[in-house]
Amino acid sequence: MAKKIAGYVKLQVPAGQANPAPPVGPALGQKGLNIMEFCKAFNAATQPPKFQPGTPVPVIITAYGDRTFTFEMKTPPASWYLMKAAKIQKGAATPNKPVGEVKRAEVRKIAEAKMVDLNAESIEAATKIIEGSARSMGLTVVD
Question: SS in 3 state form for the chain?
């Protein structure tokens, strides 16, 4: 018989840096989950060959009725990839105010990395999605 799902917890945790402090502790504590068990499993799953330390990793934790859990990691946010490619600290505070530029080839690489999490059928469609994110952050896409 399948386990009864008690709920889901969505978090964004830096790779290799999960600890019981907020936001992880309170979010998992509400569901009655073992916080240290999650932290150890998450930190082990985000070791350097897969993720660089400190990379923000979205994670969806499925809490079951018997206080067990499973978690699914997603790819880092497109905005993080774009800021890294453009070498900026944050996006534009006001719309239509350029703060940097990113090459189309870099946008395509980001689209390829994010393809598993995007709602796109082709790499060209995924590239357009990432270009839209870049524009909304105040980045200009150049050839």
Answer: CCCCEEEEEEEEEECCCCCCCCCHHHHHHHCCCCHHHHHHHHHHHCCCCCCCCCCEEEEEEEEECCCCEEEEECCCCHHHHHHHHHCCCCCCCCCCCCCEEEEHHHHHHHHHHHCCCCCCCCHHHHHHHHHHHHHHCCEEEEC
